[in-house]
Amino acid sequence: MVKSGARLLGTALCVALMAGCGGGSQKEPPLENFTAEQIYQRGEYELEARTKPDRAIRYFSEVERLYPYTEWAKRALIMQAYSYHKAKDYEEARGAAQRFLDFYPGDEDAAYAQYLLALSYYDQIDEVGRDQGLTFQALQALRVVIEDYPESEYAQSAILKFDLAFDHLAAKEMEIGRYYLKRGHYTAAINRFRTVVEDFQTTTHTAEALHRLVESYLALGLVNEAQTAGAILGHNYRSSPFYEDSYKLLTGRGLSMEAKGDSWLSKVYRQMIRGEWL
């Protein structure tokens, strides 16, 4: 989004705006004395040549304040969102991106604004503990990019990040489930592994979730459920090391990997293996 001549223009504007850049003895002239384009280019210079997003934000904000409803104000607003994100001020990045979407919903940069809004959630996912609120918000915002701007250059990246965020949610469920399993809280563990099997079937954690269900149900003496979980695992994930582990657990007790009973797992088995959805 930054023009290729920003560095040269910014250098010239550095002289105009700061009376020599290196002098330091003179105050910067009032920005009201400069055009929207000059102030905008100064923001570009701070962002690209001097890599100072905080200083760039000031200039882009001033363009919006001094020259509202102009083409330069529109461009400055999307650059505010980008600069805030680069500075890792995610809340302000979201605010600027949302303002752009509110003011210019049909603009060619609307897809980028929505993508920045989604990134402002996505880039914080690893910073949260067990609270997955930001992950859900990232998924919702990424879905908007995918569904509303499918032909944009950001759609493919949004799809990849959506899958990673979705996998992240499943990983958190598995982490909590394993925690309960190790401490013998089998019912609580089953609830977490069930969530992965039912709601996160497309992630990389389903095979382990089924194996942990085998472990948990066997610990509770619920052999029909354990066998059914093993049947699903054996049908869909035979190449997984978790299949071998479940196979040994079940056959070691004289049990087979086949669907038994009428539990929630039997319904999953009918849906996944037989294609029976009713």
From TrEMBL:
<dbReference type="GO" id="GO:0043165">
    <property type="term" value="P:Gram-negative-bacterium-type cell outer membrane assembly"/>
</dbReference>
<dbReference type="InterPro" id="IPR039565">
    <property type="entry name" value="BamD-like"/>
</dbReference>
<comment type="subunit">
    <text>Part of the Bam complex.</text>
</comment>
<dbReference type="GO" id="GO:0009279">
    <property type="term" value="C:cell outer membrane"/>
</dbReference>
<keyword id="KW-0472">Membrane</keyword>
<feature type="domain" description="Outer membrane lipoprotein BamD-like">
    <location>
        <begin position="35"/>
        <end position="229"/>
    </location>
</feature>
<dbReference type="Pfam" id="PF13525">
    <property type="entry name" value="YfiO"/>
</dbReference>
<dbReference type="InterPro" id="IPR011990">
    <property type="entry name" value="TPR-like_helical_dom_sf"/>
</dbReference>
<dbReference type="InterPro" id="IPR017689">
    <property type="entry name" value="BamD"/>
</dbReference>
<dbReference type="GO" id="GO:0051205">
    <property type="term" value="P:protein insertion into membrane"/>
</dbReference>
<keyword id="KW-0564">Palmitate</keyword>
<comment type="function">
    <text>Part of the outer membrane protein assembly complex, which is involved in assembly and insertion of beta-barrel proteins into the outer membrane.</text>
</comment>
<keyword id="KW-0998">Cell outer membrane</keyword>
<keyword id="KW-0449">Lipoprotein</keyword>
<keyword id="KW-0732">Signal</keyword>
<comment type="similarity">
    <text>Belongs to the BamD family.</text>
</comment>
<protein>
    <recommendedName>
        <fullName>Outer membrane protein assembly factor BamD</fullName>
    </recommendedName>
</protein>
